[in-house]
Amino acid sequence: MKSARIHAYQEPLKVEEVPKPGMPRGEEVLVRIGGTGLCHSDLHIMQGDWASSIPFQLPKTLGHEVAGWVEEVGDSVPSASSAGGLVKGDLVAIFGGWGCGACAQCESGNDQLCNHAR
Question: What gap in Å lies between CA 105 and CA 12, rounded to an integer?
Answer without folding.
Answer: 35
